[in-house]
Task: inverse folding
């Protein structure tokens, strides 16, 4: 039966289509006739799957941690935040992704981090909303959770529970101390630096950090 169908199509197309069209989408070779050449182009893909594959991601980065705001900024419960950055050339849906260890949070179906974009996870979304750019999504983690002022581990997991990014920050042992209550946030100095290494991090030049915006340190490190 399959051979009969192909034989019929070959004979019809070899003669060329005599039917007028308002659209010539089937004229694959652009000769203004839907003919055998167009059919053969299609047949080379006979049996191919038309499933649309999701792009693979390279990584999502933990780009900023504000774990101990200065008392003049306000309470930790209002101003703590984490910032994620997407260095990929495509948006990354975060359904099935999770934060673990320091903060436990499961992202929802609607959560998305755009192309070269940021996402802010805040302890108090309403407080930070006026300081985050309108194009940057901001979501809130659990009410009973907070970031430890002396340090702990922030871990980002993908839907397969593989570790995508992890940062074990501290307020000593080589880590800059200014983010521990003196005003700045803890910023990744460059998106190309290893996310987990202490030398990749510095104190923000901005009081309260740069939630949802390019880090104040970016462009100043040796690794650009």
Result:
């Amino acid at each position: 039966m399959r051979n009969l169908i192909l034989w019929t199509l070959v004979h019809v197309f070899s003669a060329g289509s005599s039917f007028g069209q308002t659209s010539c989408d089937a004229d694959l070779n652009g000769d203004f006739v839907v003919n055998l050449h167009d059919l053969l182009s299609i047949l080379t893909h006979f049996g191919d799957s038309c499933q649309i594959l999701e792009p693979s991601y390279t990584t999502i980065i933990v780009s900023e941690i504000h774990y101990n705001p200065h008392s003049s900024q306000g309470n930790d419960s209002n101003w703590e935040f984490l910032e994620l950055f997407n260095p990929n050339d495509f948006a990354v849906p975060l359904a099935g992704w999770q934060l673990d260890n320091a903060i436990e949070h499961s992202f929802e179906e609607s959560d998305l981090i755009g192309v070269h974009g940021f996402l802010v996870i805040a302890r108090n979304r309403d407080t930070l909303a006026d300081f985050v750019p309108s194009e940057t999504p901001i979501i809130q983690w659990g009410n009973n959770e907070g970031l430890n002022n002396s340090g702990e581990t922030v871990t980002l997991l993908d839907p397969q529970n593989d570790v995508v990014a992890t940062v074990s920050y501290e307020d000593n042992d080589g880590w800059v101390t200014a983010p521990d209550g003196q005003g700045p946030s803890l910023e990744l100095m460059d998106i190309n630096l290893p996310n987990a290494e202490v030398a990749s991090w510095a104190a923000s030049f901005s009081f309260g950090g740069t939630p949802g915006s390019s880090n104040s340190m970016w462009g100043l490190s040796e690794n650009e």
